Amino acid sequence: MKTVGFGIIGLGRQGLRLSEHIGKDIKFGKLIAVCRRSEAGNDYAKEHGVRYYSDYHELLKNKDIDVVIITTPSNMHGIQALDALKSKKHVLIDKPIASTSEEGRKIRSLAEKNNLMVAMNFPLRVNPVTRTLKSNLKKIGRLKQIQIFVSHGPVRNKWQLDMKFSNGGVILDLGSHYFDLISFLTGCRPEIIISAFSEKTENENSGFINLVCKDINVSLVLLRNQKLKKSVITCAGSKGSLSADYVEKKIIVSNAHHIDEINCPAGYDFEAILNNLVRAINKKEEIIADAADGLHSLETALSVYKAIAIKKPVRLQVT
Q: pLDDT tens for residues 211-229?
């Protein structure tokens, strides 16, 4: 396979993690350059033998870069993704895909026009717990209900507390992952936000959401800045139930006759996403999560915010 050259825009916590994976775990991937406005980016580039740029527009001119990874604050994702696509680069975007639905649709359209790939960094899709959960869903019969409870720790980045950069709180930050996970598990996207509530309307630390995906009812409790670290998904079907604990990495399958406990295998989420993108560029497999998936996740989050604001159900438009 052809070796794929990577450039990273944004060298914070997420960018550093992806950079380390490219160097250690991606056989046919090579880190070419990084972009960060501070001198810390230059120090990192020197240490790892790659190019450094303080202006991402200059990084986009580097012909050795095939893929641009965007791990900047949320408000920059859409702008930088469009600039990368205009420069004929494939893109891997950390969630959310963009700031608005219109921006997300432009990304999808430009990628199709230029025959380029847009991959979303949705690690829950490749998480070993998710894979084990999905492969065992058939054991509980027809899926009728999903309950998601997520409690995260403190916000790690200061920009996440500034609406100019974050575009939202826990509903956009964590919710983006779980709205996509619902689609991944069910094969359909959320259709109606039945009800939604949060403790405040900007930079919220909680989200309580009820939605419908075809004939499947889904409830989500999303919390951040909590001492408790917990992530549990319970699926109820016509023949039993299945509970997945992402912290303990265990799944319990239960029906009227017995209970089974399944230990999930080990694995690295980002390694799987990066390898998938490399193989997709080499036409060996399909992208795990693409621009359409990113757009659907964003539109679900925006619809939740609308339901909170108007205190009424919101039907998602098909895009």
A: 999 899 999 999 999 999 9
